[in-house]
Amino acid sequence: MVFANANFPTSADGRTYHVELKRGEATNRIITVGDPARAKRLAKFLDSEPAVFELNSHRGFYTATGRYKGVPVSIIAIGMGIPMMDFFVREVRAVVDGPMCIIRLGSCGSLNGAKPGEFMVPTSSVALTRNYNYFAPGSKEQKPYDITMEFPADEELSKLLTQELSEAFGKEQVHNGVNITADSFYSSQGRVDENFTDANEDLFDVIRKELPTAVSLEMETFMLYHLAHCTTSAPLVEKKHQQSIHCGASMMVFADRVTNQFIDHSIVPSLEEKAGRAVFESLIKWNPDEMVHEEHGSVWEVKN
Ligand code: R1P
Ligand code: URA
Fold first, then answer.
1. Which of 74, 106, 142, 293 has the most crowded Cβ, counting Cβ within 10 A?
2. Which spans in the chain are helix H?
3. Which is the closest atom of ligand 2 to the Cα of 80?
4. What is the DSSP letter of 114?
5. CB count, 10 Å around CB of 92?
6. Whose CA is nearest to atom 8 of ligand 2?
7. pLDDT, tens digit (0-9, with 9 covering 90-100), for 119-143
């Protein structure tokens, strides 16, 4: 395939390089998940008309686009980690017109006593990354890990997600607070691995001291909140808003990092389905006050 433009590679028919979507294949409302199996489970809730559009990109992104209760929605599985969130947000923003709402349904570890099977709706997120220079030969660096400032979720979306998940699972099962997005499942989440020098033995003490409001650890939410904060008004018809992406996140607790308990994976499918419904309901309640992407010629167009 020939890609024009090394700055933002795009194929002759308008597909982006990694996610491979073109205009009319992704909607303004998106649920993003890590696991493709989770995305396929959620795609089963889409309306039967029009038929669900599916695409597997050569780089492992999976998209399902259709309608939920008549509202156009996309579900996009991105795999794991900060760079995958960056690929996804930038490439999808490039092919969708109008404001966007992106909600992550992920999994996480808890730091606040939340049990496996409970939920996090982070009102903000920091990134916690390995300070690579600390580990360099002859390094004089003092800190093995760096923590960024907080980036907020959309307040309305966080409220909606908390409300919908509380209705589905009970108020006491849904937790708010600051999320930590780490650049490793292992070292920068405080997991001990004797095969590597990680200098992370006191990482939880550092977190408790520097960020006592932290409730969860995972690997993508920060980049979603960060990029939403950094979007410009470029694709909006009436450029009265600074930011064109509204975002929120909800995560199922898979690991209790205080008691070291891990989720029984046999309960995950039903947990994802029930949580998925709550996320869909939050997503369709988002009401943009600008024009959204043209339906004519899109994969979610209803043809009578
Ligand atoms: C690690 O197991 C993965 O699970 C979490 C982390 O953020 C990381 O991607 O989220 P997902 O279940 O959405 O992938
Ligand atoms: N995902 C993570 O990134 N960390 C956990 O502990 C569980 C899920």
1. 74
2. 36-43, 82-93, 155-169, 203-210, 221-230, 268-285
3. 3
4. P
5. 25
6. 108
7. 999 999 999 999 999 999 999 999 9
